[in-house]
Amino acid sequence: MTNVETMLHRVRPDLLAMKPSALRAFDEEVSAIPGIIKLTLGEPDFNTPEHIKQAGIRSIEQNHTHYPQAAGIPALREAAAGFLNEKYRLHYTPEEIIVTVGATEAIWASLGALIQPGDKVIVPIPAWGLYMNVIELLGATPVFINTEPDGYELNPEKLRAVLDENGDSVRALVLNFPNNPTGKTLRRPKLQAIADVLKDYPVFAIADEVYSELTFGESHVSLAELLPEQTLLLNGVSKSHAMTGWRIGVIAGAQPIIDQVFKFHQASVTSAAYPMEDAAVEAFTAGKDDGREMAQDYEKRGRFLYQALVDLGFDVVEPEGAFYLYCKVPAWLNEDEATFCRRLAYEAQVAVSAGTAFGPSGKNHFRISYASSLADLKEAARRIGVYLEKRRAE
Ligand SMILES: Cc1ncc(COP(=O)(O)O)c(C=O)c1O
User: What's this protein's family per the entry (predicted)?
Assistant: First the structure.
């Protein structure tokens, strides 16, 4: 007899086998711990700037409640092109921009437009787990390059070797910098060396630069400046303007390619939401430097926590952007990353994320999101110190 159980087995098997985000599941689990300091999710602790919120409110009042243009309202495509061009020395026309439902949909639309089952996509790891999910759901295979031996930067020679080895089956490389989860970024000389390799192959570079405005020190250089024909540039307002809940991202690329990506976007979501698009116009114009102010604050917090963890004996990647610290589980604890994170949450009331959410090289690593108040970070560092002492005494 047909029942829900039978029907469940008719759902695609690879989806049935896929686990929901372990990172979110752990975050939800530890939320119940009294007094927990959660340094788990990649969520800015700033509120959306007031002038942007007002633009959203005005939009609703003006009855911008109907379908907007599928590729985005013209004002937003123009504002996004202006923002990217001014900040990162690019030359996009508004027609070369698509407005998406967060950078997440930008990843779907760009990979969805390029990849067929059986293709391969190069992913330097550690990397944000969503890439792996999308690649696999599209029937493609991720080819990992572990960046850890190269100071968490993609090594151009290793990239060349992987491209040569895998030949025509490689459709794209996904490159995220500043990086989630390492907090490292790629500076111009290394990025140029990577672009020089990519130029020799007909491979797309999907440059996820959503943390571009949250770069510390020298300002961000975009891969799109160095490799315009092959790059699909992803960005958005989620991280730069503390607008994660508004769900606005953008894809920029050469017109003929963008025209194809547009079809995938339109078939998936029709469009992003109109009031959110109006608010994003404000973010990319009057609010174009809002993110730089937040970056200064994140940098202070990142430097504080980096030093505090180094002083406690942790092996930590020095942060250059975004709001993450990537650390090794101390070997003397003799436990894997999942046990470390669970015990730290229940015994010290500090929650961090297991590194395996970011690919297989994340074994024995964990990520801290430091988009929390300095007071919370100080208390978290204190608790971790006390906890380690307790563990040493065991
Ligand atoms: C590297 C990276 N890209 C994209 C996103 C998603 O951005 P959005 O919230 O705009 O979908 C995230 C969110 O954590 C991220 O870390």
Answer: Belongs to the class-I pyridoxal-phosphate-dependent aminotransferase family.
Runs of H (alpha helix) within the chain: 4-8, 13-17, 22-31, 50-61, 74-88, 102-114, 129-137, 156-166, 188-198, 223-226, 255-269, 274-284, 290-311, 337-348, 374-393
The answer, yes or no, to whether any atom of ligand 1 lies below 6 A from the CB of 102, is yes
**Which residue, 72, 112, 59, is CA-closest to 237?**
72
Helix/strand/coil for 233: strand
Contact 162, 141 (CB under 8 A): no
Q: Which two tokens stand for residue 157?
A: 């020679």
| pLDDT, tens digit (0-9, with 9 covering 90-100), for 67-96 | 999 999 999 999 999 999 999 999 999 999
Atom number in ligand 1 closest to CA 104? 11
Indicate whether 21 pLDDT > 90.
Answer: no
Strand pairing category for 204-208 and 231-236: parallel
Cis ω for the linkage preceding 126 (within 30 of 0): yes
Q: What is the mean pLDDT of residues 242-258?
A: 98
Ligand 1 close to Cβ of residue 156 (< 6 A): no
Residue whose entry in the numeric block shows the structure tokens 């315009």? 228
Q: Given this model, what pLDDT does residue 58 score?
A: 98
Do the strands 37-38 and 350-351 form a parallel or antiparallel pair, or are they unpaired? parallel
Q: What pLDDT digit, counting tens, does each position of 5-15 carry?
A: 999 999 999 89
CA of residue 375 relative to chain centroid, distance? 26
| Mean pLDDT value of segment 256-263 | 98
Written as six digits, the tokens of 346 are 């229940």
3-class secondary-structure state, position 371: coil
Q: How many CB atoms lie within 10 A of CB 115?
A: 19
Looking up tokens 């194809």 gives 260
Cross-strand partners of 368: 325
* Nearest residue to 391 (alpha-carbon basis) of 355, 321, 343, 357: 343
**Residue 294 pLDDT class (50, 70, 90 cuts):** very high
How far apart are alpha carbons 322 and 347 in whole angstroms? Answer: 28
185 CB near ligand 1 (under 6 Å): no
Q: Which domains does the chain have, with CATH numbers?
A: 4-47+290-393 (3.90.1150.10), 63-284 (3.40.640.10)
How far, in Å, is the centroid of ligand 1 from the Cα of 103? 6
